[in-house]
Hints:
Chain A is α+β, with helices and mostly antiparallel strands. Helices cover 47% and strands 11% of the residues of chain A. Helices cover 75% and strands 0% of the residues of chain B.
Amino acid sequence: MVIQRNRRNFIKATGVGLIGGLAGCTRGGEGESGDSSGGSDELAIPLSEYEDADIEWKQFEGSKINIGAVQHPWVSAIEPAVPVFEELTGIEVGWNILPEQQFRTKRQTDVSTGAGQFDVFFLDQVVNQFRNEGWLQTLDQYFDDSSLYDENWWQPDDLFEASRWQAHGGGYTDEWTGIPITTEVQTQFYRTDLYEEHGLEVAETLEEFRQNAQTIHENGSDVVGTAGRGQKGYGMNIYILNTFIREFGAELWTEFPSDSGLDTEGAINAAQWYSGLLQDYGPEGASSQTWSDVLSTMQEGRAGHIVADANLFWPDLTGEDSQVADSIGIAKAPRPADGEFGPNAYNWQISTSKNADNSEQAFLFMLWASSQPTNTWMHLENGAAFSVRQSVWENDEFRSRVGEEFAQVSLESLQQAQPDPFDEQYPEWGQSYSEELQRAIAGQKSAEAAMTQAAELAEEIYSD
Amino acid sequence: MSTPTQTETTSESTFTRLSGVWNEYLPYWFMAPMVLVMVMITFFPGAYDLYLSLVAEPTLNVLDAEFVGLRNYETAFTRGGAVHSFIITITVVVSALLLESVLGFFLAALVTGVESSRAKSFYRVLFIIPMAVAPVSLATIGRIMLNTEIGVIPYLINAATPFTAPAFLSDVPLLTVILLDTWNWTPFMFIIFYAGLSSVPGTLIEASRVDGAPLWRRYVHVIIPYMKPVVFVAALIRMIDLFRTFGVVYGLTRGGPGTATQLVSINVYEQMFINNQAGVAAAIAIVYLVFVIVLCNVLIAKVGFKGVLD
Lengths: 464, 310
C-alpha cells in the first residue's frame, strides 16, 4: 500500500509538471491560463463534483489511454484538470499533440493500418469518411451501458443542438460518432473607430455589409474594406461560402447523392457575392488568404471588417497582439435581405477507433472531459471560450470574463447555427469545390462557371 | 604424438567445408545486410505501393483485397489531375534547376575570385544560410513576407520602385514557387560548384592566361569543360530532389490558386490524405516513379557519366 501511494503521488506530481510544460507549448497555453491545480496534492476540480454520477469510475483502474490531439486551446485548457480524471478513475492519460496537418496524416495512418495507437483522437470533417471505411467506433453501446453512463448527470440536452447533430454524423447516422468538445460559430468583426469615422451602422444584411466595406475601402488609403478566407481547403473558403449558400436559400446536396446543389441559383448567387466582395473590397491576392492571414490583416489594422469568420478570433483581435484591440466590435454574421440567418458552426469532437484497445476507458474520458463540472471549470478558471454547453455561455461569471458582447453574439449564433453536413466524400468533393471557388475569387473564371464545374465534380464522385 | 580421433576428424572436415562455403560467397555475405536494408526501405514500400494501385481499398489482409486492375490509373489520369500535375512539376523542375545552376555557378565563380580568405569565408557562410531554413519555416515566413497587406516584400517594391507589387501567391503563384525554391536551394549548387572550381588545376588556368585568353574564354574553354562532371552530378542530384519538392510549396500555396501549383507530390498527398483515395495516390506515385527513373537513366546514358568516368 505504501508503495502504491508513493507511486501515485509521484505520477500526479510528474503529470502536473509535464502538463504545465506542454500547456506552455500549445496555443492558448499562455495569457489567461488560470491553472488552479495547485501543488501535487491539490486537484483542480474536487472529486465530489463527479461522485454524484451513477458511473463506476474505478472499473478500469490501473489501465492507460493514449490521446491523439492537435495543438488546440482545448488541450491546454483541459490538461491541468487531467490529474482529476486520473485520480477519479485510476486510468493514466498519455498525450500525443501535433500540429493540425501532421496530426491528420498520423491519425489516418493509425486508423487505416489498424495500428490502434490512439484510444481517443480529435476528429473533424472526415467523420463520415472514417465511419464509412469502418475505422470509427460509434459510441451508442457505451451510452447504453449503465456502468459507464448516467444521462441525468451528463445532461446531453445541455449540448447545443448543432453540436449534437454534428456528433451524429451531421444527419448521416443516428449513432454517436464521438463527443463534441469545442464549437466555434461564424460572426463578423468590425472596426468601431472606422464605423464612427464614416458614420456606419453595423450590417445586418449582405448588402449593408458590402456598402460598409465599400465606404471604408474607398475612404481609407491603407485599409481594405474587408478580408475573408480565399484559400482552398474544407476549413477555408467553402467554410465561409456554405453559410451564404444556405442563407441564399440553397443547400448542399439538394438530392443526395445525385444533385449537389452547388450549381443552383442560390449557390451561384452566393459565390458571386462572396468572390465579388473580395475582388472589389478585399486585399490583393484575396484568393490565397487563409484564416490566419485574415486574422493578421485585421490585427494589423489593415481591414475594416472580417466577414463571417470564427467567433474564436475575438481573444486574438482584442488581445495584446492586436494593434486595434480597443476598437473591435463583434456582431452576428450578415444575411441576405430576404434570407434566413444561419451561420456555419464547426465542432471538434473526440472519438475512438475500432482498433483501439481501451475504448471503454476512452469513453469514460470523453464523458469526464465534456461533463458540466470539467467544462465549467475550463471556461471559468482556465481561459477557454469554446464550450459546446449552453449552460456555460449563459453563466454570468463566464460572460463577465469574456465580455457580454462576445458571449451574447456567440450564444445566439450557436443556437441558430446550421453546420455543414459532412457526407463520406465531403473531403474529396469539398477539395474540388474549394479549388473552383478559389479560381472564382482569383478572377480566373466566373462564379457561375466555377460552381457549375464544382457541381459536376461532386456528382461525378458519387456516380462511380 | 597423438593421432586424431574419428570425431575430431569429422568436426574438422565440417568446419573446413563451412569455411569454404563462407569464403566462396564472402562478397555476398558482406553485402547481405545492405541488401536486407534495401529490401526493407525500398523494395517493400515500392511493392506495397504497386499493390495499393491495383486494389479497390487498402487492407492489411493483402489476399482479401479486391483487385481492380488499372481502374485507379484511369481515375488518376481523368479525375485525379495527374497530367496537369506532371506538367506543373516539370515546369518547376526545369525552371528552378536552370536558375539554381546558373546562379550557383555565378556565385561560386565570384567567391573563387575573391582573394582575401576572410572575405571568402564570409561569403561562403552568407550564401549557404538560406539552405539551412526548413521548408515548413520557409513557407510560413514566405507567406508572411509576401502577404499583400502586411508583407515586407510588397511593401518594399511599392515603396522603392515605380512598380506595383503583384499578389505573389495568387497572380504569379508558379513564379513565386520557383523563385522561393531558387532562393532556398541555390546554396546547394553554390557549394558543389565552389568545390569544383577550387579543384581546377591552377596550371591549366595559368597556361590559358599566358596564352592571352580573357576571363570569359578561360571559363568557356577551360574551366567549364573541366567541371562538366561536377555540373552534371550536381544537376542530377538537385533534379531528383526537385521532383520530391513538397513542403515549401504546400505551405505556401497548398497547390493553388485552384491547381496552379499542384505538383505531383502535392497531388499524391491530397489524393491520399484528403480524398482518402489510396489507390489513385499509389497509381500516380507509381507512374511518377517510373517516369523519374527512366528520365534519370536516359540522362545518365546520353549525357552524363561519360564525362564523370573519363
